[in-house]
Amino acid sequence: MTRPFKMLTFQAATLVTSALMMSTVAAMTKAASAPPPDVVHIGNFTFNQSALTVHPGTTVTWVNDDDIPHTVVSKDGVFKSKVLDTGERFSFTFAKAGQFAYFCSIHPHMTAQVIVKA
Amino acid sequence: MLGYDLDSDRRGFLKCMAWAGTGALFAFGAGVPTSIGLDSALAATPRRTGVRPFTFVQLSDSHIGFNKPPNADARATFREAIAKVKALPQQPDFIIHTGDVSQLSRDDEFDDAEQMLKATGLPVFFVPGEHDMLDLDGGKAFLNRFGKGTKGAGWYSFDHRGVHFIALVNVADLKPGGMGNLGAEQLKWLKADLSGRPSSTPIVVFAHIPLWTVYAEWGWGTDDAAEALRLLERFGSVTVLNGHIHQITQKVEGRIAFHTARSTAFPQPAPGTAPSPGPLKVPPEQLHGMLGITDALFVRGHDRIALIDSTLSA
Lengths: 118, 314
Fold this sequence. Notes:
The complex is a heterodimer. Chain A is α/β, with parallel strands linked by helices. Chain A folds into two domains: 1-33; 39-116, Immunoglobulin-like, CATH 2.60.40. In chain A, 25% of the residues lie in helices and 32% in strands. Chain A has one helix spanning 3-32, and strands spanning 39-43, 46-47, 51-54, 58-64, 73-74, 89-94, 98-103, 111-116. In chain A, the strands form two sheets. Chain A has a four-stranded mixed beta sheet, with no helix packed on it. A four-stranded mixed beta sheet of chain A has the order 3-8-7-5, with no helix packed on it. The N and C termini of chain A lie far apart (51 Å). The relative contact order of chain A is 0.18. Chain B is of the alpha/beta class. In chain B, 23% of the residues lie in helices and 19% in strands. Chain B has a six-stranded mixed beta sheet, covered by helices on one side. In chain B, strands 5-6-7-8-10-9 form a six-stranded mixed beta sheet, with no helix packed on it. The longest helix of chain B has 13 residues, at 74-86. Chain B is globular and about 50 Å long. The chains are: A alpha/beta, B alpha/beta. Chains A and B meet through strand 7 of A and loops of B.
């Protein structure tokens, strides 16, 4: 092989390898970080994420792990679940940016918010 | 069992209250709290009042549909509570249910509660709990069934043998971060309902969530109750009966005596003794001792009301 060709091959190989390495590192970083941020668990009369931050277009799901029913109701009328018994879930897709305070309408001392920003 | 006639034998009546055994006897009148020693009760001089003696029963928090620890079958324990009511030596004139009749406001839950209560043959007066407001119409299912002729979210009043009973709803339109809530419309109605009534009229108020702050952190109180209590202050004898917290607690403020009832479904922890106010998972052999009913008695010659709490293990 000619020298320039060897050079090119070497450079191409390096590029491909580093690209592979970077995507691997990126994947590893993703896996090592907190569990999927778009699920809120309800237990012990508490929303387990009091201020969840997501990008516009994200669907957030609430799951009731408690032995008592709860609801998920937006303070400003943006979303409202039916009553969720143990194991039931409710999802809402946040299209727009903003701060969305919500509470459980059965136990109103349970409050939290979803912050949507790009 | 002693036979007795409430209308003619106060001494015999008080002896029967002693028979209540595991019951706790609380008497309220003229601002005096705590249990009566029966000796002093027998020694006390009766006063003439306009109240003809009668009893009624308070049931609360039946949560029909609940089926998790510590109670796999809330229907079964409600049936036991009703059997207890039917076994009372002096049958009550009526039953008051202070709410959380159902667990999820489902039709079958309301149906079953209604059928079981029919077995007593007694009139039942209801107020909703927050668990009774969970239908898609936000409480209309309860109102259609148990709130005919009531106003707003289900409030009303009635008179019985000289005592004025007031049913308040503090579980509608709850605000985020808040506790129970009466609302301006209901307070306006209460003011009009009380105006003109002689202060000597004994009053019984019943509502689901306690009308005094038992424990704010768990929402155990009513944000705007102060105004209601101000309106009630002038009356000589006011008894407030609540549920919601699934345990007995009481307080006296001036001439207003507050009392909460046990649930017939499951107990809850005492304030601050657990991370949250959910069902207290007691072992099966302890469950019945923590569920119960309340028998309320007006004694002839007194305007005081005596409350006897008894458990399902009695």
